[in-house]
Amino acid sequence: MAFGDGINTVNNKYYDMDNILNARFGESSSEVTVEFKKTVLIRNYETEVVDLMSTVKLDEAVDGMDRALITCILNAQLELQAYMSLLIRGKVGQTEYDQRKNKILMDVNSMANRYERLTGRSAGKYLELIENRG
């Protein structure tokens, strides 16, 4: 087996996505940082880089699955904000915005469903409006 084919060459153990998402690094910080970058063509040979960063400090330490869901949500927030700004400024069209928005929503829902299936916990802890949380 070659390196990178999904098999650990030391003990022939396969680490799947669940192992990776549940990984713990001994972290004591409950801070998650996400960055979103997009290069937009303004005119021929002229581009603009949209660069957004967000950091959230949680009240509690989180495991790998929580961190993955939070990262997915934060990235979606940044990307939706960036695309809305680009749409308003006329840098992307309505069709491109709608397609990207739908892809982002599908990604977040897919991650939330996977989170709930693997952990047995509700993704609503992070996705529901604060006033609707239990």
How is this structure best described in words?
It is a single chain. The protein is of the alpha+beta class and 134 residues long. It has helices at 17-21, 64-88, 94-119, 124-127, and strands at residues 31-43, 46-57. A two-stranded antiparallel sheet has the order 1-2. It has 4 helices and 2 strands, in the order H-E-E-H-H-H. It has a single domain (30-132), classed as de novo design (two linked rop proteins), CATH 1.20.1440. The protein starts with 16 loop residues before the first helix and ends in a 7-residue tail after the last helix.
Briefly, what CATH class? Mainly Alpha
Helical proportion?
40-55%
What string, H for helix and E for strand, traces the elements in order?
A: HEEHHH
Could you tell me the mean pLDDT? 82
CATH architecture: Up-down Bundle
Specify the number of helices. 4
Structural class: alpha+beta
- Radius of gyration from the alpha-carbon trace, in angstroms: 18 Å
